Amino acid sequence: MRLYFELAKKAAQRQLAYSQANLAGLATNLFFGALRAYVLIALYGTRPEIAGYTLVAAITYTGLTQATLRVVQIFGWIEIIKTVRTGDIVSDLAKPFDYYLFWLAQDMGTSVVHLVVRGVPIMLAYALVTPLVWPADLNTMLAVALSLLLAMLISFAWRFCLNIISLWTADAIGMVRLGATVALFFSGFLVPVRFFPAWLQTLAYWTPFPYFIEVPVQVWLGVLNGPEIAAVLIQQVAWLVVLTLTGRLMLAAGVRKLVIQGG
User: Fold this and answer.
1) Which of 97, 105, 243, 262 could make an SS bond with 7 (beta carbons 3.0 to 4.6 A apart)?
2) What are 104-157's pLDDT values in tens digits?
3) Where are the domains of the chain?
């Protein structure tokens, strides 16, 4: 475990080294967060509530989604694809560590930095200019933390699966972009999934994507009650198991393919 901790630490240090990029990303997130908040204010007009969201909750939603956008890396990730193209994947697979955990540790290190340098400042900035909805109690706050951790793990498992496709096709980046587009729509980032028509909500929850952003946000806002929170956490765990197993099976099949072709 010490190895994976060090990998996460090194990834965090690399991300922190790009201070200007981090600041630029924070400014961009704040700009689009404000823009999305004003769009929702116009949408609400004199309505006190839409789909269970008050206006204050909806504004909080924009802050939370902007704060977690990079934490779950919703726009995709192609680091494994790069190693396939350079051939470095062969040496990585030959090293004495778990390949899945090797990449997971680095991803988690980067995501934690995004949480600290983007997520927290965004919520503080929102709190300075507008009323927000905050978790009702310590138990809710702990549930938010657990849900966000599971969201990060599920997102990585999904992105790992997409990247491993590069062992079979040269157009894996196109698959990553397609996957990111679908995830962006169904994750609840653009608008809350609760704003969707009933049939589209049902379809969304048959995918892992609402568990990236929508679920942690709903837990924070208190949209879900105690039993509902327990249920969505169990569903997040289920998706994590399914996607992790899928990724590992794809990796095993891909390694066999490499051995056959490489001799």
Assistant:
1) 105
2) 999 999 999 999 999 999 999 999 998 999 998 899 999 999 999 999 999 999
3) 2-262
- Asked whether the CA dihedral 11, 14, 19, 24 is positive or negative, the reply is negative
Q: What is the pTM of this model?
A: 0.92
Residue type, 63: G
Contact predicate 152/71, CB 8 Å: yes
Taking alpha carbons only, the member of 206, 207, 153, 145 closest to residue 179 is 207
* Contact predicate 154/240, CB 8 Å: yes
Whole-number Å distance between alpha carbons of 212 and 196:
17
Q: What is the identity of the amino acid at 108?
A: M
> Any alpha helices (H) in the chain, and if so which ranges?
2-17, 19-44, 55-68, 79-86, 88-94, 99-114, 120-129, 138-164, 172-186, 198-204, 214-221, 226-262
